[in-house]
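Chain A, query sequence.
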Amino acid sequence: MSLEAIATPGHTPDHLAYVLLDGDDPTAVFSGGSLIVGGAARTDLLGEQRTEDLARAQFRSLRRLAGLPDATALHPTHGAGSFCLAASTSVANPTIGSERRTNPLLQLDEEDAFVRALTGGFGSFPTYYAHLQELNHEGPALIRDLAEPAALTPEAAAELRETGAWLVDARPIRDWAAGHPRDAVSIEVRPAFASWLGWAVPFGEPVVLLVDDEQRAEALTLARRIGYDEVIGWIDGGIDAWRAAGLPVGAVEEVGPEEARRRQERGATLLDVRQRAEVDALRLPGAIHVELGDVIAGATPRAPEVITFCGHGERSATAASLLESRGVTVANLVGGTAAWEAAGLPVER
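Chain A, predicted structure.
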């Protein structure tokens, strides 16, 4: 068995894929960020000025990989849900043959049409991506060289917040909604925690966590994976200690789909914070769309009452926490579009 490197520029200028050979016969390809199941990786991460040239390179790279035998197993580095993708699907045991038959980008034989289709599928992506090239070039800091996060009194955490640290409530969103330090940003610990931390908190800024003890190590690990090494510590004693110290507490109402619908009929604004591709696939009638990334950047709908929603509730909790800090009367739709559909309420496709 041997590996052969193949130049596949597109996602990045120097991108490589690796073909696993059994003698002279390809058996698998590790396609990285070129050919993805149901799509291809985006080409705009290095800036608008390089997007089209890299998209044209991606066109040629995908066809190079599509020339491998049908039975060649496909192993990309990205899957559904990654911000690096222009489009994707989930397929068990994908092969070059299955992609040649089903991948819409491989159905386009004309380069200009491919470029339009690829670049037209780009959604927004986390702001910390702009720092990754330099960070990866320099190499990450060694764990042993980083200051160990500390247990902080509520008063110390509040003082750090006043001097510019970001207070991130990483607890489950139901706990955040019931009560949280005022102006804390809700980002529940989950696999996507790092992406949203890197979107909501400017790169290099200090962070103080409000997090359950059993999830503290996971939150710290996820933060460090993207170069967020300035996690100063966590609030010792959690929200109970914060309350006992007499520090300001906020709360955000959670509503179910039926109640959200009733309030919409009485004039509340439903705010969809999902990405564009999700909205194109399914809409709630009458909802307005402002991606979470745009809310983070400052977009603030002005309405007497706003009800945020996403697919399941975590991203909309982040949006609700930001809007609450800007003085908006806001509630969060529990369960998001999944709960709305399950309740049999109308949707548009």
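The chain has three domains: 2-120, 139-250, 253-342. The CA atoms of residues 123 and 276 lie 6 Å apart.
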